[in-house]
Specification:
Blueprint (H helix, E strand, L loop, with lengths): L10 E7 L11 E7 L3 H10 L6 E4 L5 E3 L4 E7 L7 E4 L2 E5 L4 H10 L14 H7 L2 E2 L2 E2 H4 E7 L5 E4 L1 H4 L13 E8 L5 H18 L5 E5 L21 H7 L6 E2 L2 E3 L6 E4 L5 H19 L8 E3 L6
Parallel strand pairs: 2-5, 3-5, 4-17
Antiparallel strand pairs: 1-2, 6-7, 7-12, 8-9, 10-11, 10-12, 13-16, 14-15, 15-16
Bound molecules: flavin-adenine dinucleotide (FAD).
Amino acid sequence: MVQTLPAPRGKLTENRPLNDLTWLRVGGPADYLFQPADIEDLQHFLRDLPAEVPVFPMGVGSNLIVRDGGLRAVVIRLGRGFNGISVDGNTVTAGAAALDTHVARKAADVGVDLTFLRTIPGSIGGAVRMNAGCYGSYTEDVLRKATIVTRQGEVLDLSPEDLNFRYRQSDLPDGAVLVSATFEGPAGDPEELHTRMAAQLQKRDETQPTKDRSAGSTFRNPAGFSSTGRADDVHDLKAWKVIDDAGMRGASRGGAQMSPKHSNFLINTGSATASDLEGLGEEVRKKVYETSGITLEWEIMRVGDPLKE
Ligand SMILES: Cc1cc2nc3c(=O)[nH]c(=O)nc-3n(C[C@H](O)[C@H](O)[C@H](O)COP(=O)(O)OP(=O)(O)OC[C@H]3O[C@@H](n4cnc5c(N)ncnc54)[C@H](O)[C@@H]3O)c2cc1C
């Protein structure tokens, strides 16, 4: 990317590899990585950035495969300056860089039930964008307001209706960066909330490869609902089941593997490239289609360019 970029107060790094910023530890370089100092810095940078330069906001990379050729964009990653958490009654406001886990724990301390966030390893920005959820609760159930900086550098408050939440999806204006979100959770007893979170963590560890490098569920359940279910989840068909039926549990390609512990988890066993991971995922989709006629949809987002030959 040959461009003159605005000079921010935060950190702007050219040609920055993204592999160490994703859970799967793969991915080529971003043209630029921008880590804004604070909201004003982000506003000025976006306002002054030529309109044709693409922007990609990322959280902590727990739902991403960045391809090996990297991203032709300015990747924006929020850090300190965007990770505060404050509580007012049953309302919790968190910066987009705050980890879901920290928000859930802080909310529980003051008797607000955002427990479902405890076992999701992403950031609040990623939770809102992906409508993250588990154990029958979703971000859309508790979100009251999200604040963004638009691609033009304006600060805007969005309502849940503006975000148009769907299964693992919400709408944001193009190039907008979420900077904070306000949630309202049911009241609960702090001790009981912490006990519940501990039980959920234990359940995860028993059933999912939580110690491996993964990006969570690879494919959506065919019915479109979380495997941890909610009241209207009447579909028994799970992605892991159709993957098992296609004989792909434990299948591998290069350093990529469909986890033997949970067959809908794609893992990097150590030396995987993004191409190994995506290639194995596509092979699974093909085998599942051949055996059951079901077309699995990716839940992991894949972004960027493949490596040029
Ligand atoms: C072991 C494991 C278990 C998981 N379990 C679950 C689960 O139970 N339920 C679930 O829903 N997910 C689960 N996930 C997936 C993942 O944690 C969630 O999708 C999470 O919300 C992603 O957050 P992130 O910060 O990592 O976002 P990233 O992966 O970095 O990005 C995901 C998307 O969010 C956008 N985004 C991130 N931050 C911002 C921002 N500030 N502004 C605008 N856009 C932004 C990115 O552009 C991208 O489109 C799991 C992942 C792992 C590794």
